[in-house]
Amino acid sequence: MYKLICNRPKIHFSLLILLLIVFNSCSALMNAPTDKEISTLGEVTPYTQKLKSLPLPNEKVVVAVYKFKDQTGQYKPSEYNANWSTAIPQGTTSILLKALEDSRWFTTIERENISDLLNERQIIKSTRQEYAAFQSPEEQKLTNQILPPLLFAGIIIEGGIVSYDSNIMTGGAGARYFGVGGSTEYRQDRISVYLRAVSTNNGKILKTVYTSKTILSQSMNGSFFRYIDLERLLEAEVGVTKNEPVHLAVKEAIEKAVYDLILEGSKENLWSVSKNHKEDFDKLIVAAEKEDSINNFRVDNRILTPKRGKYSVYGSLNGHNIKGDYTESEIKTGFKLGTKFFISKNINFDASFSNFSLENKNIFYQKFNAMDLNLEYIFLPEDTFSPFVYSGVGLITPQKTGSDYRGKVNVGAGFEFLPKSFIGIRIHGEYDFGLNDDWDNYVGGKRKDSQIVFGVGVNFYFGKNNLNKIY
Predict the structure, then answer these.
(1) Percentage of the chain modeled with pLDDT above 70
(2) CA gap 196, 180 in Å, rounded
(3) Second label for 7, Cα 20 to 30 Å away, from 61, 239, 356, 412?
(4) Is residue 79 predicted with pLDDT exceeding 70?
(5) DSSP readout, 320-353?
(6) Among 225, 241, 249, 239, which Cα is nearest to 95's?
(7) Which pLDDT tens digit goes with each residue over 250-275?
(8) How far apart are CA 108 and CA 92, in angstroms?
(9) CA angle in degrees (0–180, nearest 5) for 180-186-188
């Protein structure tokens, strides 16, 4: 076996690379649960700490929660057969009560199982009456004491989980080369929660809040499949899947709803913060108002804000390949400088100057200047990575003459990545359709001369983008 592997160094190396990639990128695989684990306290979410750190109220509000349940009727999605398990945990009332308790703004009273509470109080009364004759006078005094009255609520908290949208975003990527490959996939679901406060005095709905939370599932796997010889096949597979717990997503959405309810209710004087903490509480309200002013969330919970300035200047290093009347065309380098002006969130006007050479090996060589006017369309203007297309017209002239202009039509496409909001790194490809047939100083054939252009460049954006009204 040792001899066989030594004779196949490429296979051994490929396997090693595959395992390194998978083990390096999948921390969950390196920490696979192989032993029993002890029970722990429940996990917390980012809003658990926010609720617990809220400034104390001037006075706690007594609230009741009768039912806060799943109103979606959604079952767990399944690709193969019917699944009768619910997609959302059914104990959402308990989650809400815990969130109200953690906030320290409310005194919660039992209403979900009020019948159990009333039955137990009735048992206490009946037992006292039944055994009163067997008690001493001192014990009878204690027995005859009336049970204290139940607390009643000034506000009822109602609502529920109103939607569970599965597969709102799916995607993945993969590659395989000579039997060695890997792939990754992801899926996003989303839940939505409504919470409202109702006055028990007149039934008026005092405040309603709405929150949502995405649920992410990811998988990554790698495989190796290779015939070592006619009778030996080497095959290996490894993978890991991570699913965000639905319970934690529900918990976070409910805690976010309680947090917003406290802030919104305070603004409308439904309850108030203690005077000693008013300044800190006002800061939280201001931060919440900034979030509330952003009304351009997308289904994947990303905030849609302009990523580019209204103007830009750019430069690129290009490769040019002439498609003319001669054969053996060479790729020659050149550069382009230009500026852009955005007329909408997706569309910009582009003016540029370029300098380049065109060559057919041992036949033709000429340096050119060109001026182009293009309209460009960016498909995902709010994302850091977006494809784009552009088209326009231009003039090309040999550097020797400087006045012999030839027309062309430009069509191109590419991708842009923004590591920072003011910098865009671009990769593009372009085809220039010539309107003349003498770019290579020869007129012949059925087609006009043209060129293929490809390159990489950098855009520098500046100027405030005031195109929000177009959103």
Answers:
(1) 84
(2) 55
(3) 239
(4) no
(5) EEEESSSSSEEEEEEEEEEEEEESSSSEEEEEEE
(6) 249
(7) 999 999 999 999 999 998 889 988 88
(8) 15
(9) 175
